[in-house]
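Researcher: Good morning. I'm working through a list of sequences from a screen, and I'd like to move beyond sequence-only analysis. For each chain I'm collecting a predicted structure so we can compare shapes side by side. This is the next one on the list. No need for commentary yet; just the structure.
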Amino acid sequence: MITGKNYIGNQLSSLGSTTYKTFNPELNQENEVVFTEATSEEINEAVNLASKAFKKYRTISGERKAEFLNAIADEILALDNELIQTYCSESGLPEGRAKGERGRTVFQLRSFADLVKDGSWVEATIDTAIPNREPNPKSDLRKMNIPLGPVVVFGASNFPLAYSTAGGDTAAALAAGCPVIVKSHPMHAGTGELIASAIIKAAEKTEMPNGVFSNLNSSGIEVGQQLVTHPKVKAVGFTGSIRGGRALLDLAAKREEPIPVFAEMGSINPVIMLPKALQNRTDSLANTYANSITLGTGQFCTNPGLILGLKGENLTNFINSLAQKIVEINPSCMLHPNIIGAYENNKTKALNQEGLTLVATYEESTQPNYAAQVVTTVEGKTFLNNPNLHQEVFGPYSMVVQCENEEQLEEIISNLEGQLTGTVISDDNEVVNYPTVIAALQNRVGRIIFNGVPTGVEVCPSMVHGGPYPASTDSRFTAVGINSIKRWVRPFSYQDWPNDLLPDELKNENPLQILRSVNGTLTKEQVK
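Model: Good morning. Structure tokens for this chain:
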């Protein structure tokens, strides 16, 4: 049952007087439950509990953390239809999407459970002493990853489960040994509270320390600001807009002790359509991309918002086919009136730019909060000279840029901001004729796709969901997959430390039987 309260560790709390409700965009009305904004007192209590919990949680074995993460997954599944109904009522997204996202969330948790149970993720490295080395003896040095401390995670508006309360950031931080305080997204606070209740139940069942997890409600920015500036918070995870992510990054940098903010932000995900592919597959590519642009009402950070091609008959035919196919798709509901309001404003701003041509838009009447899809086109030179055209329009919107030649195509790519993805559509191995274009694209993105669509982010070790700024605040890390755990740890070395006082990961006997680098060789053997 949803109470509208905050989880401060394992206790529900509602000290504040400021309240708000979530909104059902499909019904175009507020939901019934009233949520209470977290107070400064509740924020301090949550962070202090997390800091206290860290002293114990950081030392808990990988096997026990795995039990905790698997228990969270079990408790989420136990919420069953109540979770699905709440998710749909707060997002306007269909039941199938809710169940799919729940499955992804559970899979992420179990993947991290497997990772920490194995234990090799700590990257234990041992370089044994050489006391007789001349002219200077060599010390015994041993290194491994250790957790940073309490982490604040901001729930994402467009993924109420997979990128929110028990999403990838939370799962990775808990796996690393960091307590988590979630700043719940106000658009799906009920979904967040249900998931929070599952995490708390799992923590109690597996005897995790109180304060290992808290969930705070907030409809504004003040709670988030207080959390990021709290001296006991050691890192931040965020998925959302460039404006929001940059504000948190700046706030964290101004602290007396600056802390890392790992933000995954905006992206227009350029798609390069090469000429032979357009000539051979005009209609099929148009159909594929019409569906990709409108998937989930365009509310994915990997939505293909920019299509690049060489000016000519092939590209013209593709534009005409895309225009025809995209208006055949029925519009769908956006997440919230604020989201569709921003979409309409940004779309209007783009359409008012000189030189931009409207190619297609859905012109029939739609229900409230349903977004009409749009395709536009522009000359390459105009695009280059107008940075306003480079900005994301979050929703079912895409722009086709008609480049004069390969040199201009490369110049446009090189002048883009950092992106999450880049896609190349190629036939007859024509991609080998564009090495400088591909090199320019690689320099601008975190993931490059061949003959596919950017929408869809697989959860696996080889996935990179990140990219050069402003796609993310640190392009060295991914926000998806088990390697995202590296954001919440730091390397730590022991020099000449007694073997019996070392953590198990670094002891000579290798009691955990993890894979380690010993004097440059990967092995599970003991150190002799």
